[in-house]
C-alpha cells in the first residue's frame, strides 16, 4: 500500500478509536443514504439485489452493508481500518448474509471471486484510482455494476481537479474541535470517466448530490458504471512477435475453480505457455512451460492438444497450439519475473484485457466464451472442444 494510502488508513483508524472511546453508535439505516442525507436515489438505483454477490468498498460502520444484506444480497464489507472493522464487527457480524473483512481493497479484489455489484459510499476517493481501478474492473463479473459516490466540492467551496492527484481534506473528530488531514482524489467527472473507460468500464450516469443547507457548498457526484459483457484482448506491445517466437503453445489449465491465468508485467492476463524447444513435442512443451511459469506439474500424456491457430501480426505468421490440462499437482506460484498473480478465474468472470493468443486459445476451446480478439484460423485435431 502506498504511503499516502497508509496515512489515510491510520487516520481512519484514529477516527475509529475515538468513536470506540466515546461509545456512541449510530442507529441502523432504515433507508439508503449517500453522502448527503435525503439527496440522490435510494435503493431503487441498485435494482433487485437478492442472491447477488455484492461488495461494499470502504464499509466503515457496516450500516449500508447490513441494509443490503437484509434485502437478500450476499454482501462482503471491506475496510482497511482495524478500528472501523472492529466497530462494524461488534454490531453487524451476526447479520445473515454479511461477511466483514479488514483488508486493503486492492488486495481483497485480487484474491476474491468476482462480484455482481460493487458500491462505495465515499470510500473510493481515499485510494489511488490508478491502483484501485485495474483490480476493481476485474473484480466485477462481465455485466456487473459499479456505483460509487465521490466528493466534488468541499464545504469550503473548493472544487474538483482535472488531474489524477490527491489533495488534503479535513476529517474532524466528532464531539471535538480536533482535525486530521486525509488525502483524497477529488476529481472532475471527466477525469473519473477517463479513468473508468481506460480500465474497461462503461460510465452510464453521473448524478449530483448537493447539500441542502444554505451556505454549505459541499457537493458530491454519484457515478454508475458497468463492466461490458465481453472480455477484451490486446497485444502486449505494438511490435510483432520475433520470428523465433512465432510458434508456441497456450496451456489451458481447467479445474473446479476455473481457468488458470497470470498477470503479465505489461498488463495482460494470459495462459501459461511459450515456444517449444528443439526436439520437443507440443505436449512436452506445454508441461515444461506450465512448471517453469506457474509451478504446476503435469505429465505430457495428460496434455490434450486441440489444434492449430493461425493468425498474422504484421509480416509474421503466428502459429499457436491450444493445449488443455485437467490433471496436475502443485499450487500456482510466481516462478518468473514477467508473470505474477497466478490464479484460477471462473469462466463467467474472466479478467481483461487478455493477451491475444490466450484469448484465441480459449475461444478455440470454448467458442461460447464472450471474448473479443483478432480473428484467427483454427484447424482442430478432432471434433472435441471443451471437455
UniProtKB/TrEMBL annotation:
<protein>
    <submittedName>
        <fullName>NUDIX domain-containing protein</fullName>
    </submittedName>
</protein>
<comment type="similarity">
    <text>Belongs to the Nudix hydrolase family.</text>
</comment>
<dbReference type="InterPro" id="IPR000086">
    <property type="entry name" value="NUDIX_hydrolase_dom"/>
</dbReference>
<feature type="domain" description="Nudix hydrolase">
    <location>
        <begin position="242"/>
        <end position="368"/>
    </location>
</feature>
<dbReference type="InterPro" id="IPR041698">
    <property type="entry name" value="Methyltransf_25"/>
</dbReference>
<dbReference type="InterPro" id="IPR029063">
    <property type="entry name" value="SAM-dependent_MTases_sf"/>
</dbReference>
<dbReference type="Pfam" id="PF13649">
    <property type="entry name" value="Methyltransf_25"/>
</dbReference>
<dbReference type="InterPro" id="IPR015797">
    <property type="entry name" value="NUDIX_hydrolase-like_dom_sf"/>
</dbReference>
<keyword id="KW-0378">Hydrolase</keyword>
<dbReference type="Pfam" id="PF00293">
    <property type="entry name" value="NUDIX"/>
</dbReference>
<dbReference type="InterPro" id="IPR020476">
    <property type="entry name" value="Nudix_hydrolase"/>
</dbReference>
<dbReference type="InterPro" id="IPR020084">
    <property type="entry name" value="NUDIX_hydrolase_CS"/>
</dbReference>
Amino acid at each position: 500500500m502506498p504511503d499516502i494510502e497508509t496515512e489515510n488508513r491510520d487516520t481512519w483508524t484514529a477516527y475509529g478509536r475515538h468513536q470506540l472511546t466515546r461509545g456512541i453508535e449510530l442507529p441502523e439505516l432504515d433507508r439508503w443514504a449517500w453522502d448527503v442525507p435525503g439527496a440522490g436515489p435510494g435503493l431503487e438505483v441498485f435494482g433487485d439485489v437478492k442472491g447477488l454477490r455484492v461488495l461494499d468498498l470502504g464499509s466503515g460502520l457496516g450500516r449500508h452493508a447490513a441494509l443490503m444484506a437484509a434485502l437478500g444480497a450476499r454482501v462482503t464489507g471491506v475496510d482497511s481500518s482495524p478500528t472501523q472493522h472492529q466497530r462494524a464487527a461488534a454490531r453487524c457480524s451476526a447479520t445473515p448474509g454479511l461477511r466483514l473483512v479488514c483488508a486493503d481493497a486492492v488486495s481483497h479484489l485480487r484474491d476474491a471471486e468476482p462480484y455482481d455489484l460493487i458500491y462505495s459510499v465515499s470510500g473510493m476517493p481515499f485510494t489511488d484510482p490508478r491502483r484501485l481501478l485495474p483490480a476493481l474492473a476485474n473484480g466485477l463479473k462481465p455485466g456487473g455494476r459499479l456505483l460509487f459516490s465521490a466528493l466534488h466540492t468541499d464545504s469550503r467551496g473548493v472544487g474538483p481537479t482535472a488531474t489524477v492527484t490527491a489533495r488534503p481534506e479535513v476529517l474532524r473528530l466528532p464531539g471535538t474541535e480536533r482535525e486530521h488531514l486525509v488525502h483524497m482524489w477529488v476529481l472532475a467527472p471527466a477525469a473519473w470517466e477517463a479513468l473508468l473507460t481506460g480500465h474497461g468500464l462503461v460510465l452510464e450516469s453521473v448524478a449530483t448530490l448537493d447539500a441542502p443547507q444554505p451556505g454549505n457548498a459541499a457537493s458530491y457526484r454519484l457515478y454508475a458504471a458497468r463492466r461490458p459483457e465481453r472480455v477484451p484482448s490486446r497485444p502486449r506491445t505494438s511490435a510483432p512477435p520475433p520470428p523465433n517466437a512465432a510458434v508456441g503453445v497456450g496451456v489451458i489449465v481447467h479445474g473446479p475453480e476455473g481457468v488458470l491465468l497470470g498477470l503479465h508485467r505489461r498488463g495482460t492476463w494470459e495462459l501459461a505457455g511459450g515456444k517449444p524447444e528443439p526436439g520437443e513435442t507440443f505436449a512436452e512443451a506445454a508441461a515444461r512451460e506450465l512448471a517453469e511459469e506457474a509451478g504446476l506439474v503435469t505429465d505430457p500424456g495428460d496434455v490434450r492438444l486441440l489444434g492449430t491457430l493461425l493468425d498474422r501480426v504484421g509480416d509474421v505468421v503466428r502459429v499457436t497450439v491450444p493445449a488443455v490440462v485437467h490433471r496436475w499437482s502443485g499450487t500456482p506460484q510466481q516462478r518468473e519475473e514477467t508473470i505474477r498473480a497466478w490464479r484460477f478465474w471462473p469462466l463467467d468472470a474472466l479478467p481483461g484485457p487478455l493477451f491475444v493468443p490466450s484469448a484465441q486459445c480459449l475461444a478455440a476451446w470454448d467458442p461460447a466464451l464472450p471474448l473479443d480478439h483478432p480473428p484467427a484460423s483454427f484447424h482442430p485435431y478432432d471434433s472435441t472442444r471443451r471437455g
